[in-house]
């Protein structure tokens, strides 16, 4: 945590994997994030809020309406050096409407079905500044095609706190995004 009682202000969720072997279809993983509105709030028009799912979801080719969650880099193959996908969450600027943000990773299932065991060297890292809050390689959820990796909750004081949340899901990307914050895997 940064500062006395401030909680988490800004984090990055990083994802990397190695490209598929020569002659095999490319592997495409995506970082997704969804904020949840505080209970009892009237949903914003068109937000999707008020249901059990997130108010909105940030993923490839999108950013949050208020600019507080965005994808810095999107890879469709895992090629290159370092982290293949990086998403920034500026929690310190996120509206007080939201008291929870869940971050996950999903594997695109085109043109072949692939779980984390079928991805070469997948890894994730959740960092605040230079502090690593969580890191892993998806071994615990190897048979899954999607997983949550982090959950951030706003305390009554307004400060954000981090909760490790590695849970595997065996469902298509659209269903995973709708059920991102469910406590039980689908």
UniProtKB/TrEMBL annotation:
Q: Which Pfam families match?
A: TerD
Per the database entry, which stretches of residues form a coiled coil?
none
What InterPro entries does the record tag this protein with?
Answer: Stress/Tellurium_Resist, TerD
Domain named TerD: residues:
6-172
**Which PANTHER family does the entry mention?**
CAMP-BINDING PROTEIN 1-RELATED (PTHR32097), GENERAL STRESS PROTEIN 16U (PTHR32097:SF4)
Q: Which family does it belong to?
A: Belongs to the CAPAB/TerDEXZ family.
Know the name of this protein?
Answer: TerD family protein
| Upper lineage | Bacteria, Bacillati, Actinomycetota, Actinomycetes, Kitasatosporales
């Amino acid at each position: 945590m940064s500062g006395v009682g401030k909680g988490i202000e800004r984090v990055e969720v990083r994802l990397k994997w190695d490209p598929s072997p020569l002659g095999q279809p490319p592997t495409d993983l995506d970082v997704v994030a969804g904020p949840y509105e505080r209970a009892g709030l009237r949903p914003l028009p068109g937000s999707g809020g008020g249901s059990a799912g997130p108010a909105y979801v940030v993923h490839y080719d999108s950013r949050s309406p208020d600019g507080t969650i965005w994808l810095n880099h999107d890879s469709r193959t895992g090629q290159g050096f370092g982290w293949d996908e990086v998403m920034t969450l500026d929690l310190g600027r996120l509206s007080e409407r939201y008291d929870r943000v869940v971050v996950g990773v999903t594997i695109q299932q085109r043109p072949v079905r692939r779980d984390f065991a079928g991805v070469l060297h997948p890894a994730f890292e959740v960092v605040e500044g230079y502090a690593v809050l969580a890191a892993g390689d998806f071994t615990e959820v190897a048979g899954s095609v999607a997983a949550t990796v982090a959950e951030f909750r706003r305390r009554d004081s307004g400060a954000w706190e981090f909760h490790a949340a590695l849970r595997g899901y065996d469902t298509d990307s659209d269903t995973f995004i709708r059920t991102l914050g469910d406590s039980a895997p689908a």
